UniProtKB/TrEMBL annotation, chain A:
This is ABC transporter permease. Pfam families: BPD_transp_1. The keyword Transport applies. Residues 19-198 form the ABC transmembrane type-1 domain. CDD domains: TM_PBP2. It comes from Streptomyces spongiae. Keywords: Membrane, Transmembrane, Transmembrane helix, Transport. It is a multi-pass membrane protein.
Automatic annotation (TrEMBL), chain B:
Residues 287-296 have a biased composition (Basic and acidic residues). The lineage of its organism: Bacteria, Bacillati, Actinomycetota, Actinomycetes, Kitasatosporales. This is ABC transporter substrate-binding protein. GO terms for cellular component: ATP-binding cassette (ABC) transporter complex. Residues 1-20 form the signal peptide. Residues 287-310 are annotated as: Disordered. Keywords: Signal. Residues 46-305 form the ABC-type glycine betaine transport system substrate-binding domain. The keyword Signal applies. It comes from Streptomyces spongiae. Gene3D superfamilies: Osmoprotection protein (prox), domain 2, Periplasmic binding protein-like II. GO terms for molecular function: transmembrane transporter activity.
Amino acid sequence: MTIDWSWIGDHTDDLTTLSVSHLQAALTAVFLGLLISLPLAVVAHRIRPLRGLLLGLSNVLFTIPSIAVFVLLLPVSGLTRTTTVIGLTIYTLVVLLRNTVEGLDSVPQKTKEAAKAMGTRPLRTLLTVELPLALPVIMAGVRIATVMSISLVSVATYIGDGGLGQLFTDGFQRNFPTPVIAGVVLTLLLALVADALLVALQYVLTPWTRKRGA
Amino acid sequence: MNRRTLLGGLLAAASVPALAACSSGITSLEGEGSVGQGSGSSKDGITIGTANFTENQVLGYLYAAVLEAAGVKTTVRPNLGTREILIPALKGGDIDLLPEYQGALLHYVAPKATATEEGEMQNALTIALPAGLQVLPYGMAEDSDAFVVTRETAEKYGLTSLADLAKQNGKLVIGAAAEVKTREVGAVGLKDVYGVEFKEFKSLDSSGPLVKGALKKGDVDVANLFTTDTDIQANDWVVLTDPKNLIPGQHVVPLIADRKADATVRKALAELGNVLTTKDLTELNRQVDKDKKDPEDVADAYAKQKGLTK
Amino acid sequence: MPDTVYELFTNLGSWLTSAEQWSGPDGIGHRLAEHLQYSLLATLIAAAIGLPLGLLIGHTGRGAFVAINLASFGRALPTVGLVVLVFLASGLSMWPVYVALVALAVPAIVTNTYAGMTAVDPDVKDAARGQGMRAHQVLFQVELPLALPLIMTGLRLALIQVVATATIAAYVSFGGLGRYVFDGLAQRDLVQVLGGAVLVAVVAVVLDLALSGLQRFLFRHRTA
């Protein structure tokens, strides 16, 4: 199995386009996943009976093969990017929801009581005290969800999307390893870079955790 | 594709769901959505969808080349899947044009169709196609389905025609793309017309690495391949003859949404159809599959060489 | 839309319950057996690789950084790409399926085993050593039992992912429940796709429950 370097040289534009499209799908899914799981996590955190239900439901969604989800979405959103993004979003939920709930749980009761004693309203407490303190755990979830989404985008190649995944079906049909290797390496690179950027973002967003560590 | 900044792309992509949810018309199990929700005329550009095998992509890029030369903006979406997936997408407006094959398309929209002559099939298609879709004049090039066995298998069981398969009912394994199992020009027709019953149907791919690999290894006895596949000759495989004409003529024919089928598009695609021969198409497939050239480059070079584009 | 969903699920009912659907080489019984075979064998191989690795790293504390980063690297590996790559290298065989599934399962097993080992209170280990226990005795009699809950979590997570992903075997011509998903896609038979997906989810949930039952049993055994 040899790499045809000239093919890679001739296709840098295509590889860039596919990488950008790949990343777009994955990041949009994580973004939407966060938008959905934040309010759900608050509900699950506050209302105990709903907690098991929501977490259990997201766990069950996780057991459905991703390819089936993409295909079952065809009657809803057709052969479009939307199908890819909805499918990926569903998979981010299991990680994001669980970590956000755990993050909120990790905020010490005393801190919340102190905020209440100071007359801070519940919504304000949530936004200015609980969520920031939960941020490290939430960010850990965001990192896992991002890496997972980036690796999962390629499954959408079976419905004609899939970013770098298109290189896999192409290489498969033509018995041509070079595009497949390029696709795998670029997917790993995207995941590494995205993860590093998220670590940096977390560093900037949570200055207080640094002092404690020092 | 224009390059956007990452953030801009993220926001744009995030706004897609709302828009696309309105534009997609495929809302039932069979994909019987309403037709014609895609935008305007060929002036707004044409999205060409292609199926999951090399030749269809070559054809898609050939369409793109001649349409671009005629001043129509095109987007090619390679490798979208099977006819069963593509035609609902065409009805729904996700794509506007796709390279099709006369007989196979006719049997998809009218499984009991009896027409076998090209002109008849073209008329039958015009009647049978759902409102909003039409076929343009068919081209010279043809790519038929072939049921193929290895030389050894042919000799062992005395197979020369599809009718011979019925003598070995319950013994042979057939390998083909999954959709062939439920198609008239496939397992269904082989049973109805020739009375053939296989021991097993193995879902593989469309004249791709799986079905050819399985035939070589002996995992399947009969394989469904395309007549434009150069591997048939290269491996000295035997194409079973079709005395009862189960397999209809398969001239390449553009299937297009009415809203995009204006004079410019008709003229450009007709010119291509009159130039491209079966031999040419076979050679272009070979360049993509064996020489690992891009279907787009192969198509562009051919169109230029034939004077279809400048 | 509501009509479509209703239709889909009523058709699913008859698909799942028809006798014809359960028999023969493409029957649910056979596909289920294939799917279980792929999933369980792959998870076993992954456990044989991941458990010793996680225990070793956790016990010695060496190589943790490399192992944990390799594991998160492994999580980013695109399964489809890996399957195709191994297919191109090995031809028509089961290798692509098992390599991809094992690669998927090993990271979850290693990281959780390691996490379980590091969560063991150092004082407990010191006390065990103080009582004159040898290194391997500390590992197998103290650390391993205490790390077991997290180790089991890793195994369960790996198994769920493997069961869902074993669907990919159908892409390279093999069987399993993924056959229904891929064939249903090619034929645009959504009932078949849904049937395959539901069966995969049921298998994953049942196996997970079985493992958590095993976990409870192991604990009762230990404390009794």
